[in-house]
Amino acid sequence: MIVEFLVLNGLDVDGVKNPSLGIIVSLLNYIIFPLLFIFLAIKTYKEKYNEGFVSFSEILRIGAATTVIAALLVGVFNLIYNYLNPEFVDQTIEKMRQIALHQREQMLSQGAQESEVSSVQSIENQLDATRKSMNSFFSIPMTIVIYAVIGIICSLVLGAFLKKDKPQQ
């Protein structure tokens, strides 16, 4: 995910302005990469360290551990990157502001009432909170929790196919 971020950022490819790319990146980060790396971790453990067997509880532990380690690395990377490149945070917040305000105007032009859409002040408050979270150590535990849940869900799916208990002796 770090390499993906650096490549997309280096190529100045914007997932916010290109919704199709945003969907692809989200699928990669939240489904495909976790499934792939959990699968590889389970396969390695099963074949190299456990004589071809792996229990469901081991699969859950491996999946959670794999995604927690990845999330820790990504969280620390993001925090360092955001501190070294504060303009990145400002640019991201500005893109989010433009999109939110555009969506608000679209909803109003389509007949939504002022009370049915977020106020400009509410949007600004949410953006301020996002800016603070992007530049705080709080982002690391939140990233870990999110990816731990993803890891457990992916492990449940993979466990249905990869589980192979040792025969009783």
Question: What would your notes on this structure say?
Answer:
- Helix 3 packs across helix 4 (86-109) and helix 3 (56-84) runs antiparallel to helix 6 (139-162).
- The radius of gyration is 20 Å and the shape is elongated.
- The N and C termini lie far apart (43 Å).
- It has one domain (2-162).
- By secondary structure, it is mainly alpha-helical.
- The model has no long low-confidence stretch (mean pLDDT 89).
- The chain has helices spanning 2-10, 19-49, 56-84, 86-109, 120-134, 139-162.
- It contains six helices and no strands.
Write the topology of this structure.
Elements: H1 2-10, H2 19-49, H3 56-84, H4 86-109, H5 120-134, H6 139-162
Describe the structure using short key phrases.
6 helices; elongated; 169 residues; 0% strand
Summarize the model shown.
This protein is mainly α and 169 residues long. The protein is built from 6 helices and no strands.
Question: Span between N and C termini?
Answer: 43 Å
Q: Give the helices and strands as they follow along the chain.
A: HHHHHH
Assembly classification = single chain
Question: Helical amount among residues, as a percent range?
Answer: over 70%
What is the 3D shape? elongated
Question: β content, as a range?
Answer: under 5%
Q: Helix- and strand-based class?
A: mainly alpha
What kind of sheet is the major sheet? none
